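Good morning C.,

I know you're traveling, so I'll keep this short. The sequence:
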Amino acid sequence: MDATQLFEMLKKSQEPKGFFFNTDQARVDELLNNLLLNKERYGYMACPCRLASGDKGNDADIICPCTYRELDVQTYGSCYCNLYVSKAWNENKISHAYVPEQRPPEKILV
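The tokens, ready to paste straight into the viewer:
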């Protein structure tokens, strides 16, 4: 699977749920390519904006779409890495505020 195929597959499954890809196509392409790279590395698509441990159980909360996406999009209009956004975010009807990390500190690798 390549980034274009992943884009089409995720678009079909996520837009009906109210999650849209960022209109910055270069950003989306970079993130999708890195999701595929993480799938190759770890066997699962860990969020490319977070450091994965390689332990699927430990990283379950950051497998895309991550556990934090829904609340982030509801609260900020965007997920942490700006891959998934709300329609209002894409239409510039809400500010593009910084999305803080919601992952508990004990899960973040140092």
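Safe travels,
E.
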